[in-house]
# Entry
Amino acid sequence: MANSLRIKVYLSPGARADLQQLNQRALQHPHGKEKALLEAAIVMLHRLNGHRHPTKPLDYNPHFADLSDCDTTYVGVAPYEAPPLRIVSRDIRPSRADEITRREIVAIGARQNSKVYRVAGQRLGRPLGITLAELAAQREPTTDPSRSSQYSVNSFDSPSADESDLLFG
# Structure
């Protein structure tokens, strides 16, 4: 196990809602492309869990919120079409060596018009056109210790330690 990177996938509340929307569309069209996309997304989430599946790091783009600490994974069902779905995730490194890296799934959505990236930026509370470094500089802790906890760039609603790896609600 020393050579493998241990990763546990966590679906954020927004990603759970995205998956539920995919499920609703699949239920409305049980023999259509929507069902196949839902199944492909679930398979990909399982692949992202436990080990490093190939993802593409995102770069800073001034037209979007800075997602340079995130990765994207392509999800599709037709071999000759551009994959229509994206999974945006970010790895949260553990504070101790014996802990597992958490892969937070931020958003699951359409690649069309970069919608999934806009949604991911909103969910992470990041303004458009400001780099993570600029954002961190704006959020430097003050001398008031009661205010310093609200300036964590990596804060998110964490599940308890006994929750399962994949939460599909």
Q: What stands out?
A: The chain has five helices and five strands. Residues 91 and 166 are 15 Å apart (CA to CA).
